[in-house]
Fold this protein.
Amino acid sequence: MQYIWGWLIILASVAGNAEFWVILVNRTHSFPIPHPLLRRFRTCHDLAIPGWVLLLLIWTELSSNSLLRGGRLQDQPEFLSWLIVMTGFWSGPLVWQVLVWQFVRYRQFYAADSRRVYDVGGEPGLDSTMVCGQPRRLASLWPWNEYCHLEVNTKSLVVRSGRQRPSRGSRTLRILHLSDLHFIGTPGLDYYRFLVQKAMEEPVDVILFTGDLIDDPSLLGVAREILRPLTAHAPCFFILGNHDWRYDLDQIRQGLISDGWCCVTGRSEIVVVAGRRILLAGTEFPWVTDTPPNVVNSGCDLTILLSHSPDQLRMARVLGYDLMLAGHTHGGQVVLPVIGPVYSPSLFGVSHAAGLFTGGPVALHVSRGLGGKDPLRWHCTPELTRLCVSVQNT
């Protein structure tokens, strides 16, 4: 029996150590920390997780009283015992995360009225090399990698508010939500041309982009060229994200504006759709210290905040917005069986990694995004979302 307890304690310690470092990585990547520092911190994470396992195995070989050989926790050196207890403590949040994923977040993550998934590299008439680009070895060897797939889905939500609204129009607002394109060469350019084609197959009222356009500044020109047809399809509004922040923000912003996109960072625009007044505003906080307007007394039928990160949900609530659209987290990119997503650069961790959240005073849609600096997707298909938003007074 002592052997079993020893193994359970070690497993809890290994899992808790991994969870501790994952939590740190997720939270630190939600702050405006320079990329080189984040990369060094990620290196510490990469060493600490297997390093702790290696230390425990070495101690097992050196000591006949190790936990894996039937020893008791109190038989271990004091410092080692303290580390085992501390790391084991962090297995609790991991268990809680798994339970929440299984019973709550899974449904929110994948919720959609309809979806169609395309293997873009296998579409007739398309060259798979031009679609998929040249991924690095890990991405190319990862089984069932979905980074060159595209899910086009439709999601419906009802926005309710306690404040009185004008009673004009009844048709739902159709929003095309794009996020995290990450032009870097992988996926290839034909992948983005395909998604623009799919974006224009059905009418929408507005197109909203929530940041992270490029990871290779040399591709800015062709990115603008590929996205330009969208401005003729519907009014287009945008903010930028933390990857854009690494480059020349003004150049990226002015380029999109000259193509017909409207930037709403730290400001608002009102559009009239189907007789309804819709207010659109944006924030790139914390990478850009803007302040979107307070809209509690806007007199509009619907107020929408574009935020690159879902972390600004509290800001949206305080300022009186009805709906917030975000990205940044990519849905975790890899969604593990049972556990769910692991890495999500957010103060919320993985709890708002992706999906539709309608239980609070502000409805939230977090997109899984379309690209990524690292071309790796597993059970987390890139998504192009059409939101059908109904407005109701309460």
Notes: DSSP finds twelve helices and 15 strands in the chain. The domain at 113-393 is CATH 3.60.21.10 (Purple Acid Phosphatase; chain A, domain 2). The mean pLDDT is 92. The chain has two domains: 2-89, 113-393.
